[in-house]
Design brief:
CATH topology of the largest domain: A middle domain of Talin 1
Mean pLDDT: 82
Family: Belongs to the EfeM/EfeO family.
Shape: globular
Protein name: Iron uptake system component EfeO
Strand content: 15-25%
Structural class: alpha+beta
Subcellular location: Periplasm
Strand order of the largest sheet: 3-9-8-5-6
Order of helices and strands: HEEEEEEEEEHHHHHHHHHH
Function: Involved in Fe(2+) uptake. Could be an iron-binding and/or electron-transfer component.
Keywords: Signal
CATH class of the largest domain: Mainly Alpha
Helix content: 40-55%
Low-confidence stretches: 1-6, 12-26, 304-312, 335-343
């Protein structure tokens, strides 16, 4: 009973802290309403002027929604964890050009977003307002090191899967994935790889039976749900290749300061909004590893910053960690056997 109460207290505390943080917007910004259904966006084609636009995203689908604006495979802006039946707002400062909008399931067609007019000074200098100084350099070094650990860990993990060593693969699953969770604010900038590496079965129309469902969670289901790795060799090879491609792209990436600064709040907010329910690692029940990794990654983003918004996000990351501890979660290495269902 005490453990059940502790888990409920943790969920309520985190939700209260982060459910409405950082999204207040000026009233004079143009607004565009986008409704996401189970099959598409309504409308599927949107045109706005360059500069700031506030998107009002209504989730009329049957699952929690992550709505993204994409430029090629790169995520430009996103709003995560929009529950079914709920509406959230996203203010984007966009340059002229052609963009895509995600519309629910990864198997759904993408909408088209056209931005017209001339480049705005505010949009062009948005990231330049934050220094590309020692803090960004240090964070990139951290992400680079974690990515290297992810590559080596994934190789060992997928080798165990292909060898049919189920117990070894199970033991390696959570320790390997934690490296991805620590760098999630950067890794998820690459929408194609993030979907291939870390998507959940709920992101696909046919769920676990969808052939496009790949990555860590596909192998998690095989290992912990089916207790069989039959037919998993191709999925293991693809995961290994995707992680290597992620390492390559990160090495070539100029880290966007706004994404680095916002990463701390984003990581903790995701724990509060969805991961606390145990839905991500639903077969292995190793969610506490994810919580720890998200806290680790968020703490690397806590630094003095030029803007008040950045300072608020850093305080949120620190407060989130303190509230996690008050609710019974302690920032320390978690044994493989300690799982969310045991709380």
């Amino acid at each position: 009973m005490m453990n059940h109460f502790r888990r409920n207290a943790l969920q309520l505390t985190l939700a209260a802290l982060f459910s409405s943080a950082f999204y207040a917007q000026a009233a004079d910004i143009p607004q565009v309403k986008v409704t996401v259904t189970d099959k598409q966006c309504e409308p599927m084609n949107v045109t706005v002027k360059a500069g700031k636009t506030q998107f009002i995203i209504q989730n009329h689908s049957q699952k929690a929604l992550e709505w993204e604006i994409l430029k090629g495979v790169m995520v430009v802006e996103e709003r995560e964890n929009i529950a079914p039946g709920f509406t959230q707002k996203l203010t984007a400062n966009l340059q002229p050009g052609e963009y895509d909008m995600t519309c629910g399931l990864l198997t759904n067609p993408k909408g088209k977003l056209t931005v017209t007019g001339e480049a705005t000074k505010d949009a062009a200098k948005a990231d330049a307002l934050l220094s590309l100084g020692e803090a960004i350099t240090a964070y990139k070094a951290y992400v680079t090191a974690e990515t290297a650990e992810l590559v080596s860990g994934t190789k060992a993990f997928t080798d165990a899967v292909k060898a049919g060593d189920i117990e070894k693969a199970k033991a390696l699953y959570a320790p390997t994935r934690q490296h991805y969770e620590r760098i999630e604010p950067i890794a998820e900038l690459f929408s194609d790889l993030d979907g291939s590496i870390d998507a959940r079965e709920d992101d696909y129309e046919k769920k676990a039976e969808d052939p496009k469902f790949t990555g860590f969670h596909r192998l998690e289901k095989a290992l912990f749900g089916d207790n069989s790795v039959k037919g998993m060799d191709n999925y293991a090879d693809q995961l290994n290749a995707d992680v290597l491609e992620l390492q390559k792209r990160i090495s070539e990436l100029a880290f966007p300061p706004s994404k680095v600064v916002g990463g701390a709040a984003g990581l903790i907010e995701e724990v509060a909004a969805s991961k606390i329910s145990g839905e991500e690692d639903r077969y292995s029940h190793t969610d506490l590893w994810d919580f720890q990794a998200n806290i680790d990654g968020a703490q690397k983003n806590r630094r003095p910053a030029a803007s008040a918004a950045a300072e608020r996000e850093q305080r949120a990351a620190g407060e989130g960690g303190r509230q996690l501890q008050k609710s019974g979660y302690h920032s320390q290495q978690i044994p493989h056997q300690r799982r969310l269902r045991d709380l």
